[in-house]
Specification:
The complex is a heterodimer of chains A (315) and B (331). Chain A has 315 residues and is α/β, with parallel strands linked by helices. Chain A has a single domain, classed as 3-Layer(aba) Sandwich (Rossmann fold), CATH 3.40.50.970. Chain A is 45% helix and 10% strand. In chain A, helix 8 links the parallel strand 6 and strand 7. Chain B is an alpha/beta fold. Chain B is 36% helix and 20% strand. Chain B is built from 13 helices and 14 strands. Classes of the chains: A alpha/beta (315), B alpha/beta (331). The interface between A and B is large, with 44 and 45 residues.
Chain lengths: 315, 331
């Protein structure tokens, strides 16, 4: 049991160490542009990707680095992508907010809020004809719950009993605005009933709870057909983007968030179960070392070739 | 591409689209046809009739949800299907432009070709008597501004058949913009089941030596009528139809304008920012020597009123086209 929890811890630390290294490179200069980190939300991609099969499709958002890593996309190629290098997963065409690595079952970030949900419906629909038994997972934030495309996708998936798992990462902020001010009801998961699908609000900072519910939703999707909405409650410890002044935070809010963030929680649980602190700390060190090596390799790679900027537009 | 023995059938434009859809569903098992009312009802214009019966759940009806229709087509295409979806009116595509512009058009480029979105969007546009301002717009220029999308606008039954077959076989997202005023037109001999014309290219619908008139879509017939009237005045207009707007056969336009020394571009869309401006710019940019400044003929920059008497005051018809081309030639 503690072995799996240590594996979860490593997976979450890999995401966090990646994100922290990205922040360092963004502030130092080599990474440019808009970057959205998922620090504090690591339990959701780690728990969910653990139960995805290779044939399943995964559509994430611009806060998608953690999803890609958890799905198996190599960190070095992700750093390279953010750095605009030739070795990036998309050779620098996707960047931080819109990269794709279908060869790893990661069908892309999306920098349009909610746009991945209808696309995921299509990936699920395709499975009906190609005999793959594919499920499609689409990830979005609480803010996307107010996008028309997400409503359309939920109804479309429900009407046609498509194997789609809608994962809402509710970090309580629609970009810089509290979601509580933008909806009248408090539980977004309750909307599932209106589409005739199951909906659950779960603890998104508990990797085991995420794993359990996503596995269940995938089973429903694949064995009986039909979508599920999972509202995963979480909080980001960082801004909406690097540079966000976060003046919307209440006093003491970040301290409260840090006390219940997934890595600290899992660490406390492992310590309580008698796992030696040194063993736990070694996990963090291992993840950080991996990301340092990956980032260094990416930084050493050649920039994307400007002569290729017009390629791959048409068949 | 696979094809059966060519066969000549008498079909109108709508029937030609229907024949192409039947062929595509037969020869490409990965195709799907879906959209609002296209399955059991067979489409509001009857264009998808018979597909549901013959191909079962590969042809189906959807909710009135353009984002879900277009977005699911992008996702299904990424996964190896070849969706042919219908957006009932081009005006309705505006509800879900994100899925066309931000999503479909980016898939191949951003992934460096490792993911593709071979989907075909069939829609129809333009004014017909009584249609309101939200069912009359000609929007091709919006899509032509977007790199990554192919755009075709057939005007004859043969092109309605050929261009759709080519579009669906193409591995890019393609928008085929039909026109409902053409669906129930005269039956013509259409070669079906054989090889079709490749992507791109122009059609010389009438040769002439005094002026080149470039046009596409439903305007083609009006331009041909105008050319008849001009011929009676001794003006020989070369009518060059460009059913493919992306890729656009610039070379054919340059060659024709170089021969005639005069250029008019006629489209139903509003003049400002219309694709006619692009055609004129390409001819000017290529340095083709012209005897007179080129002209654009289109709808003025006005919303489209419903009453036929009002709409007719705005839309280019054969008389207006002939008048403007005559003035261009006579100076």
């Amino acid at each position: 049991m503690s072995e799996r929890r240590l594996a979860d811890l490593l997976a979450m630390w890999r995401v966090r160490a990646f994100e922290e290294k990205v922040r360092e490179l963004r502030l130092a200069g080599p990474i440019v542009g808009s970057v959205h980190l998922c620090i504090g939300q690591e339990a959701i991609p780690v728990g969910a990707c653990d139960v995805l099969e290779p044939e399943d499709a995964l559509f994430a958002t611009y806060r998608g680095h953690g999803w890609a890593l958890a799905r198996g996309v190599p960190a070095e190629r992700m750093f390279a992508e953010l750095l605009g290098r030739r070795t990036g997963v998309n050779g620098g065409r996707g960047g931080s907010a819109y990269f794709t690595a279908a060869e790893y079952g990661f069908h892309g970030e999306n920098s349009i809020v909610g746009a991945g949900a209808p696309i995921a419906c299509g990936a699920a629909l395709a499975g009906r004809y190609d005999g793959s038994n594919r499920a499609a997972v689409t990830v979005f934030g609480d803010g996307a719950m107010n996008q028309g495309a997400v409503h359309e996708a939920m109804n479309f998936a429900a009407a046609f009993s498509l194997p789609v798992v809608f994962i809402c990462e509710n970090n309580r902020y629609s970009e810089l605005t509290p979601i509580a001010d933008m909806v009248r009801t408090s539980r977004l998961a309750d909307r599932a009933a209106a589409y005739g699908m199951p909906g659950h609000r779960i603890d998104g900072n508990d990797v085991e709870a995420v794993r359990f519910h996503v596995r269940d939703a995938l089973e429903v999707a694949k064995e009986h057909g039909g979508p599920t909405l999972l509202e995963c409650m979480t909080e980001r410890i960082v801004g909406h983007y690097i540079g966000d002044a976060e003046n919307y935070r209440k006093p003491g809010e970040l301290d409260r968030i840090r006390a219940r963030e997934p890595i600290a929680r899992l660490r406390a649980g492992l310590l309580a179960d008698g796992v030696p602190a040194a063993e736990i700390d070694a996990v963090e060190a291992r993840a950080r070392a991996e990301m340092e090596t990956a980032a260094a390799a990416a930084l050493a790679a050649p920039f994307a070739d400007p002569a290729t900027a017009r390629e791959h537009l048409y068949a | 591409m696979p094809e059966t023995t060519p066969q000549i059938r008498k079909l109108n434009y709508g029937e030609a689209v229907n024949a192409a859809l039947h062929r595509l569903m037969e020869e490409l098992p990965e195709t799907l046809v879906y959209g609002e009312d296209v399955g059991v009802p067979g489409g509001v214009f009857g264009v998808t009739r018979g597909l549901r019966k013959q191909f079962g759940d590969r042809a189906f009806d959807t909710p009135i949800s353009e984002s879900a229709i277009l977005g699911s087509a992008v996702g299904a295409a990424m996964m190896g299907r070849r969706p042919i979806i219908e957006i009932m009116w081009a005006d309705f595509s505006l509800v879900a432009l994100d899925q066309i512009v931000n999503q479909a058009a980016n898939v191949r480029y951003v992934s460096g070709g490792r993911l593709t979105a071979p989907l075909t969007i069939r829609t129809q546009q333009g004014n017909a008597p009584g249609a309101c301002a939200q069912h009359s717009q000609c929007l091709e220029a919006l899509f032509l501004h977007v790199p990554g999308l192919r755009v075709a606008m057939p005007s004859t039954p043969q092109d309605a058949y050929d261009l759709l077959v080519t579009a669906v076989h193409c591995d890019d997202p393609v928008l085929v913009i039909e026109n409902r005023t053409l669906y129930f037109g005269a039956k013509e001999e259409v070669t079906v089941g054989g090889p079709v014309r490749p992507l791109g290219g122009a059609r010389v619908r009438r040769p002439g030596s005094d002026v080149t008139v470039v046009t596409w879509g439903a305007m083609t017939a009006r331009v041909l009528d105008a050319a008849e009237a001009l011929a009676a005045d001794g003006i020989e207009a070369e009518v060059l139809e460009t059913p493919w707007l992306n890729p656009f056969d610039t070379e054919a336009v340059l060659a024709s304008a170089g021969r005639t020394g005069r250029l008019a571009v006629v489209h139903e869309a509003n003049v400002t920012g219309g694709f006619g401006a692009e055609v004129v710019a390409r001819v000017a940019g290529a340095g083709v020597p012209l005897l007179a400044p080129p002209i654009r003929v289109g709808a003025p920059d006005v919303r489209m009123p419903a009453a036929p008497i009002l709409a007719q005051a705005l839309l280019p018809d054969a008389d207006r086209i002939a008048g403007e081309v005559r003035a261009l030639v006579k100076g």
